[in-house]
Fold:
Amino acid sequence: MIFDTDVDRAACVDNKGMPINRNRLVALAAAIALEQCPGGTIVTDSTTSAGLKLFIEDTLKGKHHRYRRGYRNVINEGIKLNESGENCPLAIETSGHAAFKNNYFLDDGAYLITLIIVKMMQLRSEGRSLDDLIEALEEPAEEAVYRFDIIYSDFRSYGQKVISLLMDFADKNPKCRMAPDNYEGVRIYCSADEKDWFLLRLSVHDPVLSLNIESAHKGGVAKIKKLLKPFFLSFSGLNISSLCCEAE
Structure:
């Protein structure tokens, strides 16, 4: 079991030495939450994987509400959905912040780990393990994150301009299709099965644009980078050295 210093975030390592964090932690917490709330909505931040959405909706028969980064944003969205009549048992960020409805939507890492331990013991009595609970989760073959410093004092306006122009760029490219649920930045699918995608968003606090790329195929990240490089090279107000200097 792993906690940050004030125990509002948590993760764990299984009996095979594999970390259960990020998308795997969200999947495990969602599986536990939806046992008591069939068909409920799981709120997550914007960077969750394509496989996680399939796991929540196809395997667990819940609903995935992909929202914004920032644990308060995620938690407040879960509270808002419940107040509107939509049953949301869990709001969780890939950073490890998890807030359950039956724990008053507190971001409490100790509560999350306690639920995981209880579930682990229940599964053990059945001859099963935590891995069995999330074995249907499809994980990406490749993923990468790039951070571009914005070299302008009014970084938010400039960042929003880049995002807006990227939407126009993607709209004109037959290889791209915009995700319908964009609450933060823009997420673009680069494959028909939606398992190859990129997300460009403004950092919550810093003068930075973050680019997440994920692919279900080996070499997929390099293909998406090749598609995007000409677009980002046209902006003098961005430091994209992380994208350009990395070996293909």
